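Structure first, sequence second, as always.
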């Protein structure tokens, strides 16, 4: 009887050790899964942020928006997601770099020099190129809706909106006096 009891006790201890090992392995795998999920979420947020930046500058410059591959994160492994982050980071940097050079940059800077500060909020004209509300709504409607009046826009955004008006046939005529001072009219 004593021998059976010892055998049962040994078997119970072996089962307990096996369960503890399985539980530890399962716990490690679960924590690894949680860490991986959080990492993938972080990478997904980075991709989204870089996509938005890319598309912001492309739409502001009037360029076609870069399309996505159409894959969702759940269809990708971690290495592919990391590559996607790097790809969209490069695209965002390239779009920002292109936006740094509006075609009439020097002209807009000259007009700005005679107009106001980039953050001038004095109605009825706003920003460094002194745009009224109808001008902002017509040529920079998305910026007006998302950021408010031109005094809240970055200088490059203001210049690209002015560039859009220039390309629409308005030229430098919305700034008749300052454009003359700058030798543009």
């Amino acid at each position: 009887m004593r021998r059976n009891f010892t055998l049962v006790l040994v078997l119970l201890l072996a089962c307990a050790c096996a369960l503890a090992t399985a539980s530890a392995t399962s716990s490690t795998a679960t924590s690894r899964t949680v860490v991986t999920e959080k990492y993938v979420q972080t990478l997904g947020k980075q991709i989204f942020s870089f996509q938005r930046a890319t598309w912001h500058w492309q739409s502001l410059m009037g360029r076609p928006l870069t399309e996505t591959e159409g894959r969702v994160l759940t269809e990708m492994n971690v290495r592919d997601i990391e590559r996607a982050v790097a790809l969209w980071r490069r695209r965002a940097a390239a779009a920002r770099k292109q936006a740094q050079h509006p075609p009439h940059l020097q002209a807009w800077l000259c007009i700005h020099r005679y107009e106001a500060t980039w953050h001038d909020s004095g109605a009825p004209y706003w920003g460094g190129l002194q745009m009224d509300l109808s001008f902002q709504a017509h040529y920079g409607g998305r910026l007006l809706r998302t950021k408010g009046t031109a005094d809240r826009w970055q200088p490059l955004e203001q210049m690209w909106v002015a560039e859009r008006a220039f390309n629409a046939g308005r030229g430098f005529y919305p700034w008749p006096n300052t454009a003359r001072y700058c030798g543009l009219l």
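Margin note: The first helix runs from residue 2 to 61.
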